[in-house]
Amino acid sequence: MTTGVFQRIHSVLTALPISERKIAQYILEYPHEVLNQSAQQLGQSTNTSGAAVVRLCKSLGLKGLPDLKVRLAGDLAKNTPTPLGYRDIEPEDKIESIIDKTLQNHIQVIEDTASLLDLAKLKQALYLLNQAETIHVFGVGASGIVAQDAQHKFLRLNKHATAFTDTHMIAMLLANANSSDLLFGISYSGETKEVIDLLILAKKYGLNTIGLSKFGFRTIDNHVDVSLKVSGEYEAVFRSAATASRMAQLFCIDVLFFSLISQDYEPMIKHIDHTRQAVKYLKDRTYK
C-alpha cells in the first residue's frame, strides 16, 4: 500500500512515547513540509532527534523515513489528511440518519483497514494457509463470529477448518494436531486472554500461527508467526456492538479468501461450485 500514514498515526498516537508523539503530531499538522525534510531536520523541527524519527517509523510499522514519505505523499494525493470520524447514533435519530451513519462508518473502516494492510504479511499468511492441513480459527464474542465466517470461507475452498467456541475443545484439537496444522487467532484488542493462551499452546505443539488484531503493537503479536492488522481507532460510543471492528476483520478475511482463490483459480472455482450445488440440493428438497 502507498497510503496510510495518517491512519497509522491516529491509531497509535496516544500510546506513543512523548518524543515520537511530538513528531507524529508535527506530521499531521505539517505533512507537506515533512516531504522535504531529512530525519535530522524533522528531529530539529520537533525538538527531538533523528533517532526518534527512526523509532517512530518503526512504531508505525514502516521501513523508514523514505517509506513514510511515499505513503504520506499518497495520503496527500488522496486529499485525506485526517479521518472523517465514526458517527454514533443519537436518541430519537431518524431511520434515514441511522442508515447514513451506518453506511459512512462501514465505508470508512474498510478504507482505513485497506490503507493499513501489510502486503508482505498478507503474502506470508497466505503461504501458511496454503500449507496448512487443517486451519483452526478461534475468537471470542464478536471475533468469534468472524472466526465462523472464516471457517465457512475456508470450507468452501475445500480446506479443513474448525471454529469451535469452547477453549477446552480447541485445546484438545491442538494436543492431537499435526505439525502442518495452523491456529488463526482473532482478537480485535489483541489482548484477549483466551486467544493468547491458545496461541501459546499452539506454539508449544509446534503449529504455525496467524493473528488478527487492531493496528499497533499488541500482546498477540508476541505469539504468532504472522500478525495481520486492521483499523484500530475512531469506534463510536456503541463499541459494545463491535460494528466497525467486525467489519474491519471481515474485510481482512475476505481479502485472504479472494487471494486464495486467485492463486489457484480453476480448482478453487470448482470447489465453490461443488459446495453451491450441495447447498442447492438441500434447498430444493421437498417432503410430502
TrEMBL record:
Keywords: DNA-binding, Transcription, Transcription regulation. Residues 3-79 form the HTH rpiR-type domain. GO terms for molecular function: carbohydrate derivative binding; DNA binding; DNA-binding transcription factor activity. GO terms for biological process: carbohydrate derivative metabolic process. It holds the Pfam family SIS. SUPFAM superfamilies: Homeodomain-like (SSF46689), SIS domain (SSF53697). Residues 125-266 form the SIS domain. InterPro entries: Homeodomain-like_sf, HTH_RpiR, RpiR-like, RpiR-like_SIS, SIS_dom, SIS_dom_sf, WH-like_DNA-bd_sf. This is RpiR family transcriptional regulator. It comes from Thermoflavimicrobium daqui.
